[in-house]
Amino acid sequence: MKLLIARLVAQSAITVLFVLSIGALAPAQQMIGAKAGLIPFVRGQVFLDGKSLRITRNDYAQMNNGQILSTKQGRAELLLSSGAYLRIGENGSLRMVRNSLDGTQLTLERGSALIEVVEKIKANPISINSSATVIEIKNPGLYRLDSNPSELRVYGGDALAYSRSNKTKVKEGSSIRLDGDFAHSAFDPNVADALHLWAAERSFAVFVANPKNRNLSSWRPVGLGELKSTSYRMRFHTNTAWIRNWQIQDMKKEAREEKEQEKLVKDQLERIKREAEIQENADRKKSQRTSDSSQRFQ
Q1: Within 13 A of 246's CA, how many CA atoms are on the CB side?
Q2: Is residue 233 part of a domain?
Q3: Can you count the helices (H) and strands (E) in the chain?
Q4: pLDDT digits (tens, 9 = 90+) for 124-147
Q5: Which residue of 188, 196, 198, 276 is 20 to 30 Å from 293, comparing CA positions?
Q6: Tens digits of per-residue pLDDT, 99-114?
Q7: 163: which strand partners?
Q8: Which residues pair with 175 in a beta bridge?
Q9: Which of 119, 152, 112, 150 is nearest to 136 (CA)?
Q10: Is residue 74 domain-shared with residue 171, that is, in the same domain?
């Protein structure tokens, strides 16, 4: 059942202790090697090729080509690159087709998944098959795929969808049915379900635990002890001192940039002034030479 985000947030306020408890698993998310498909976090009933999957603290599992990750009353998170995460919900099934970092390919066989990309993918785009459609994702943003009904929603960024007969670019705020003619329609990004809330919690935990992604993530401070994601359209609370320190650092950075800009403008004005003085001196000398020549002819 879908609920308004405001209602979900009111019922599920996150404290810093909770964030740190789930964020403790983030080191595994930084262990990107030569393959995509690391599984750093699972909750509830999750299976890899039919075998129950458990991820211990600071550990992870590797999803290999041809393997199927499935869930019952559970959820799982996949790390597709250093800045791309796929989070699959309950009663889902996902097959790994190709786990290469230079061209990851997956098939969503059942259920729903949210794909969050926090930095532009430099290699080939992430490719996800759903129904008879291929979805390619390369740019930062938040994307949702559902198998029943088969649908793509773009909360932020843009994605390319194509089948044998159709091809379209889906931009922020648009959704398309994947089993039809790709007709675009708008959706309300402020409506969320349990998967959306859980994915936002995971995104926030990774954001807090991994300083490397802070300038790339969609999470930004909006008040005392509060941050908001422009992708998830959600607000969470964390340690006030931590946010204040981050805001101070941002203010210092902006002050440095303003000072550098002022110096550039000042230097440019000085250069223009020097060039004007040089031109003025040249004109004066030219005028003097012309005057001297006229006097000699007289």
Answers
A1: 20
A2: no
A3: 4, 21
A4: 899 999 988 999 999 999 999 999
A5: 276
A6: 998 889 999 999 999 9
A7: none
A8: 153, 185
A9: 152
A10: yes
The letter for the amino acid at 46 is V
**97 in Cβ contact with 65 (< 8 Å):** yes
One-letter-per-residue 3-state SS of 180-238 = CCCCEEECCCCEECHHHHHHHHHHHHHHHHCHHHCCCCCEEEEECCEEEECCCCEEEEC
Phi, psi of 265 (to 5 degrees): -65, -45
pTM confidence score: 0.72
Neighbours of 36 (CB within 10 A): 25
What is the enclosing helix (H) or strand (E) of 162?
A: strand 158-162
Report the chain's C-alpha Rg in angstroms.
27
Helix ranges restricted to H, the chain? 5-11, 16-23, 194-209, 240-297
CATH number at residue 109: 2.60.120.1440
The length of the chain in residues reads 298
